[in-house]
Structures are given as C-alpha cells and as structure tokens.
Specification:
mainly alpha; 3 helical TM bundles of succinate and fumarate reductases; 84% helix
Length: 209
C-alpha cells in the first residue's frame, strides 16, 4: 500500500508540474514578454490578467495549491536523496541533481516573487512595468531573477521529460532520446523569452535589438 501511495504521489507530482504549473509558467512568461513591446503593452497584458473573472479562485486552485503540493512533495523527494544513476545513467543523473537544486531555489524565488508582486498588490501597490523596473534596478535582484527564470525554465523542461517517462509516454531509449532533444529546445526557447523580458525591464533598447 505504501509503495502504491508513493507511486501515485510521484505521478501526481509530475502531472501538476506540467498541468497546471507548466502551463501557468508559459502564460506568465508570455505576459512578461509583452514588456519587449514597451511599458504600455506590458501593462495592458498584466491588467488583462488581473481583470479575469474568478481570478482569486483561479489563483488558489489552479496556481497556489498545485504549487504548494508540488513544492512540499518535491522537498520530500529531495531529502529522500535517491539517485537514479542505475536507471538513467550518468548524464540523466546530473540533470536529476539539477532538478532538485532548482526546485529548492524556486521555492525561495517564487515565495519572494509572490511577496513582491501579489502581496504588494493586495496592499495597494500597482503591479506594472514601473514596479518590475524598480525591482530589477538592484543588481542583486537582477541576478536573483535571472537565476530564478533559468531555474524555472530548466525545472519545467527537465520535469517534462520525467513526466513523459513516468506516464509511460516515452518507454524506450529512442523515444527518451528524442524527448531529451525536444525538452532541450523547449528550455532554450522559454529561456530566451524570459531573458528578453528581463532585458526589456532594465534596458528596452537591448530587448529590441
């Protein structure tokens, strides 16, 4: 029973990392990418998301609760410290290690990002282009956000590979190798989108080069 429960928890953990958390990550990066078109475009996109009906319900049940379960169970996996060297080999084991490291970092990053944006918005601040420009004007916060964005895109992309294996979609070495290439492309594409948005907040001219 315990093994079956752990198996189901791991599959749920993997599923939530893709749907809805992965979908939310792509949507969030897309909204941020509007900053490359200028402050007005970003503000319009951000305000559109804030004006969605049932936004609080969506945030709680589609974002916060799935992230909470994924984070708590992810920490459980981290502190178990089980290696997958025998199952996937040296390269994949390194990616498994980076997955755990980025997961811990993201727990800190997301908590701080929510504090700087959603909590401050609840206290009356405007979540807009000027807010992000002010946050990223600090060199420390800029590095913090760069590492956070890259951690998020890697964690999602590598987690997508694990999801395909866990759910029996890629079951042989060839399909897993193809998935490795595909998820690497996804990582690069999402990272470019995320970095472009950060550049737009600190230097619009660089973002539009």
């Amino acid at each position: 029973m315990a093994e079956n429960r752990e198996f189901m928890n791991r599959r749920l953990h993997s599923l939530l990392g893709v749907i809805p958390i992965g979908v939310f990550l792509i949507q969030h990066l897309t909204v941020n990418f509007f900053a490359t078109r200028g402050a007005e475009s970003f503000n319009a996109a951000a305000h559109f998301m804030e004006a969605l009906p049932y936004r609080i319900f969506l945030e709680i049940f589609i974002i916060y609760l799935p992230i909470l379960f994924h984070a708590v169970y992810g920490l459980f996996i981290v502190f178990q410290g089980k290696s997958n060297t025998r199952r996937f080999g040296y390269f994949r084991n390194w990616l498994f290690l980076f997955q755990r490291i980025t997961g811990v970092y993201l727990l800190i990053f997301i908590a701080w990002h929510v504090w700087q944006t959603r909590v401050q918005a609840a206290l009356g601040a405007n979540v807009n282009y000027d807010m992000m420009t002010d946050i990223l004007s600090s060199p420390f916060m800029l590095v913090f956000y760069i590492v956070g964005v890259l951690s998020a895109t890697f964690h999602f992309s590598n987690g997508l590979w694990s999801f395909l294996v866990s759910w029996g979609i890629t079951v042989n070495p060839r399909s897993q190798r193809i998935a490795t290439y595909a998820t690497a492309v996804i990582f690069v594409a999402l990272s470019v989108i995320g970095m472009s948005a950060l550049l737009a907040f600190i230097n619009p001219d660089l973002a539009n080069m």
